[in-house]
Structures are given as structure tokens and as C-alpha cells.
Amino acid sequence: MEKVTMDTLINYAKRYGFVYQGSEIYGGLANTWDYGPLGSELKKNIKDLFWKRFVQESPYNVGLDSSILLNPKAWQASGHIDSFNDPLIDCKACNSRHRADHLIEAHDDQVLADAMDKAEMETYIEQNNVKCPSCGAQKFTAIRQFNLMFKTSQGVVDDKSQDIYLRPETAQGIFLNFKNIERTARLKLPFGIAQIGKSFRNEITPGNFIFRTREFEQMELEFFCKPGTEMEWFDYWKKESKQFLLDLNLADENLKLADHDESQLSHYSNATTDIEYRYPWGFDELWGIASRTDYDLGRHQEVSEESLEYHDQETNERYLPYVVEPSLGVERLFLSILHEGYTEETLENGETRVNMKFHPALAPYKVAVLPLIKKRHREGTLELYKRLAKHFSVVYDEAGKIGKRYRRQDAIGTPYAVTMDDQTLEDGTYTLREKDSMEQVRLTEAELIATITKNITF
What pLDDT score does 390 carry? Predict the structure, then answer.
């Protein structure tokens, strides 16, 4: 099979109801996306499987759902107000805006622009004749820092004292609740707090479909441990994170661990590794795992003047825990899963079918229920639909010939199709078709439920 292009995925996603352009009837709103019937189901399944693996099945972790709006002092303490910035530069010829570091890395992907300061980036752009990707000009404004947080106001008075921010990450809500959760859940170190939620970043150059957006969902874990043990846990969560991706059927050859060298590390980190996925444009960050030391708890303790120290009852020690953070974007994993699964196959009769090879646990619909002949089998099939829907996400389809209906379900990744026919009326059995092999067997309703349940388990 040839490499799947981004245009193919975008067209596929819209055609089958995975992703639509936001506000499309008004001409759209740049870099906003709406998730249709299949897309919303796939997103839900991604989040459910993350929660199942990292909370439900973990002996260490519990969950949290914190507020999107935090006291502005939290963002002052975390450094987001003062330093959560991108280097913004404008082309003097066409007025297009760009991130200076991205311009440099597009010019030479061997250069680590993240390690440069403002003056170094300006010098590099001038001396190396870096061009504007929009018009080809080589004249730019000076670099200025652009804060990525969305600002809004709380209350009825439009007053600067009322300024608050949409959260740019879910992590800070976890840190603010560290003591609450430790106390109420009666936890001892090491333990983790997981959260899934919306975040917002006013990116200068969003793009690549849903890969980089201004509104996105994060699945984050903050794992608290005793200082000195953080590298052990850092390695543990790197392995667990990659294994989760492999278990979702992402191919090992499409995953790469990229360790940050010292010049790339954030000021609060003593180790960071990105799990990169091979997207249509090449390897790019999917999942970041960072050892954040005690920076966050230390800053919140300092600014709030509330002790966030952990008291080890067994040793009578008091200390700020260190933190290991695996952070994964829902949309980036969504795109990886679409890219990994999209397959075009040529059948023995020469027909080409689109076969979306989702892990069955991810499939938006687990089973399609089909009447062989609409007039004769419709009523019984609808009754079967109602019964199966108590167990699975089910879709009913009666439009067109049975072969075309099978192809529609193949294209959206439905692993099983159940067909009612005249034999069903005689002996109560149904035809169960498996998508990838296209093999069919006759089963009773109880056997259907047992077989599907067994094979969609994650």
C-alpha cells in the first residue's frame, strides 16, 4: 500500500463523519474542528481506554476533573504569565506571521532553534537568508514574545483585576489539588493523579489538520514520588506509555523515542523523552514524558504560602515530591490512529475496498445489524438491534445491497456485522461477518454476544 497522504485522511474524515471544519456554514473558523458521529465515538473510546489503563487498572493512580478556570495566581506561580511565550516574527513583504524557531528549523532541520535566545534567532535568520514560506521574501520584523494563553474576564466589571485565563494545560489543576487528593484518598507515595480535559493555547502557527490546534484535549498523569527515585519512575512510565500505543495497534516501526539533550530541557525538567509517531509529514511528537522535579509544587507552595510537603509517616521525613508527567494529546492520538488504520485493499474480484483497521476496542461501532431483505427482515432486525445495543455500540443499516452495506462498515472500521435472513426465522441463528477476514459463521444470539465481547476487549 502507498503512503497515506494528509489530504486522503482529511477527505476521509469528513466523508464518513469523523471530523468537520468548525463553523463551516459561515465559511469556517481557522483551525477549529468539530467531531461528528464517528469522530465523537472514537474520541470517547480513546479517552476511555486511557482511563482504563492508567487509572482503573493501575495500582498507583486516581483521577481528577479540575476546573478550566484557575485563580490567576496559579499561572503566575507556574511561570505561564511571564514565560509561556513563542517567538513571533512577521514578514515585511506579505505581513504573514510565523514562529521564528519554526522558520529556522524549516530552513535547516539540524539546527536546534529551541536552544537559541531571541538575539541568536534574529542573527541566524539574517545571516542564513531564511525565507518567508508564504511569499519567499527575506525581510522580517524583530522577534517579539507572544503569550500563548487566552485571556478573558470574570464577573460583570471589565477591570484588569478580573483578568483570568483559559488553562493552557491540565497539569496545574492537579498540582493545586495534590494535598486534597493525598488526604481524601488516603494515599502514600508513590502515587499518580490522572486527568482528561480541554486546554487552550493561542498558537501562532497551528496546522496539519488536527495535529496542532488552539483548543485541544489532554490526557495527563502527574506521578508523585520520593526525590531520588524519579528516574526509575521516568523509565517505568516511558515503557508503559509506549506499550499502551502498541496495544492500540500502532506499529512499532512508526514509533520513535526521542530523548531531549540538556540544551532542549525545560528549566523545570531533569529528563524528557518524546514518543514520536510517523505522520504523513514525518516523525513528530505524540506523547511527552517529563521528569518535572519539584518545580511545580515548590512554586505553588511559595506563592500560596501553603505547605505542600509530603509527610512520610514511616520515616517522619517531610519533603516536596518529585513528579514524572506523561502527557498525551487526544487529537494527536486520534490522527495517529486514523493514519495507522487507513488501508485500501484490492479484492480477488478486482474491487478496491477501504478497510479501516482500528483495534476493535477503538471502533466507533462494534457491530452493524443488517436485514438481508428490508421488507421481510426489518422488524426482527430492529428488535435484535435494541437487544445488542444494551451490550455494544451498534449501528443499523438497511440502505442498498448487502455487499455495499458491508463495504460501508469496512470503511468506518466496524469489526462485525450481523445479518438476519430467512434461516434466522427457522432456527434463530444469524450470520456473523468479521471485517478483516470477511469470514462468516452462523451463531445464536447468545453466541453472537459472547464472540463479539471476547474479541473487542482491550
Answer: 97
Q: Across the chain, which distance is largest between two alpha carbons, in Å?
A: 82
Peptide bond into 326 cis (omega under 30): no
Q: How confident is the model at residue 115 (pLDDT cuts 50, 70, 90)?
A: confident
Report H helices in 359-401.
374-388
State how far the Cα of 283 lies from the Cα of 407, in Å rounded to an integer: 32
Average pLDDT over residues 445-457: 96
Which residues lie across from 276 on neighbouring strands?
Answer: 256, 285
Grid cell digits, residue 94: 506579505
pLDDT at residue number 374: 87
Q: What is the pLDDT of residue 163?
A: 83
| Domains observed in the chain | 6-72+157-339 (3.30.930.10), 85-147 (3.30.40.230), 365-455 (3.40.50.800)
- Phi, psi torsion values for 75, nearest 5 degrees: -75, -25
How many Cβ atoms from other residues are within 10 Å of residue 234's Cβ? 22
Whether the CB-CB separation of 292 and 16 falls below 8 Å is answered with no
Amino acid identity, position 159: D
For the whole model, what pTM was predicted?
Answer: 0.91
For the beta carbon of residue 19, count every other beta carbon within 10 angstroms.
26
CA atoms within 13 A on the CB side of 313: 4
